[in-house]
Amino acid sequence: MAGSRGEFSSRIGFIMAAAGSAVGLGNIWGFPTQTASNGGAAFVLVYLVLAFCLAYPAFMAEILIGRSGQANAVTSLQKMSRTVFQKRFAFFVGFGGVICASLILSFYGILAGWMISYAVEPIAIVLKQEWIAEWVIGSSIGRNLLFTVLFMFLTIIIIRKGVEDGIEKWSKRLMPMMIGLLVLLIIYVLTLDGAQEGLNAYLNPDISRVLEPNLLLSALGQAFFSLSLGTSVMVIYGSYISKKENMVSIGAQVTLIDVSIAFLAGLLIIPAMYVAQAQGVQIFAENGDLLEGPTLVFKVLPTLFDSMGNVGLFVGFAFFVLMSVAALTSSISMLEGPVSYAVERHNIERRTATTWIGFAILAISVTIVVNIDYMLDLVAILSTQYGQPIIAMLCCVFAGWIWQRSKLLEEIKQGYDDVENSFFWKIWPWYIKFICPTAIAIVFIHSL
After folding, report:
1. Which end of the chain is more exposed for a tag (fewer CB within 10 A), N or C?
2. Dihedral (CA of 147, 148, 150, 151) sign
3. Residue 419 lies in a domain
4. pLDDT tens figures, 234-245
């Protein structure tokens, strides 16, 4: 093995890193957009229930596989395999997660680059460099390449530092910064005209809608995918956790933070939509459908910030810095997937592996930028709608059907002696064996 693997030096270090991976552009923007498109508060209610009843058990499966194996995703899964077929199956699942994480990062870096470019615009305006302000929010190949490269370099630099000095150190810094910015923006937006209407739409559920099939499936998908399931990321992060830690409580804390930040994001975005609407910006079509969808952040919010005058420059800058930070805490986990595989399976030095893999993924990003009209959606759909649900489902199958129950119990007891008598142990093994694979399969079939 090329050097020491390292591990998280503290519980809070892992929690911040895992929550940082889970909390990305999907949570900060995707969750509010899904909420606005699927019944508002009714979607929020269903999402909260499914996050703890289904996503949390699946999340536990991945981090337990990682801590038991103390290795990259492929090796960890193969360690619990007993037959040649199971070992080949383990390679397929583990390496599939590595590929999935790499593909996600290749288009994620482009989106994150846009966030950075929109954060630069207010600075250019303050400095009276109007041509720069116009260029950074344009859709030129040059703009896309510059900010994609910048974001990928930031990700590579952090991962080159390793677990404790890279992932943990920067997650501890970036996550509190992100939460602080989010809270300040919420406080500001809630003082504006129209915010109360948005608050009512977000917090007052129409109970009659909670059983709508599309709403249930959308909430289920958001709950699973917001926790970075199906990308081998949580298997790897789990492998860096001390054997002394109580995995049941750690998993619950990460899930709670992830859900809480998604909820806070909705508390910002949904009222902001209604504030923009009160100022004459069209948010919803006549039939009530959300206009623009996922690209609304680049269409509506800049208009909202512009209407605030000079204060809007600061608010816009803070918001897009927030989005950039959210993207970075996710991207470092995605790059760690293929890097850990290269370091441990092929004995490549970490800095070398990080640099070469980072540049390889950047090359894919550049290819997407040059062919952005069709490749961006293609890669996003391939990795998130097909790759993630399949890999997440197969990890649940591993934990529920291949991992021997006695070995699984032994692993959890290392940090929680009395787990055998807990409510968690009475419910979770059955959940992971039957409920979670079925639920994820439903989401995948729906995506087809």
Report:
1. C
2. positive
3. yes
4. 888 888 888 888
Ramachandran class of 49: left when φ > 0, alpha when ψ lies in -120 to 50, beta otherwise: alpha
336-390 pLDDT, tens digit each: 889 999 999 999 998 899 999 999 999 999 999 999 988 988 898 788 778 888 8
3 assigned to some structural domain? no
Angle, helix 310-345 to helix 350-370, in steps of 10 degrees: 130
Characterise 2 by phi-psi region: left (phi > 0), alpha (psi -120 to 50), beta (else).
beta
Query: Which residues share a beta bridge with 284?
Result: 290
Instruction: List the domain range (segments joined by +) for residue 199.
Output: 11-447
Phi-psi region of 309 (alpha: psi -120 to 50; beta: other; left: phi over 0): left
Q: Work out how many domains the chain is built from and give that number.
A: 1
Residue 155 sits in a domain of what CATH number? Answer: 1.10.4160
pLDDT for 156-188, tens place per residue? 987 787 655 656 666 667 777 778 888 888 898
SS3 290: strand
SS3 3: coil
* 2 domain residue, yes or no: no
Question: CA 328, CA 312: separation in Å to the nearest integer?
Answer: 24
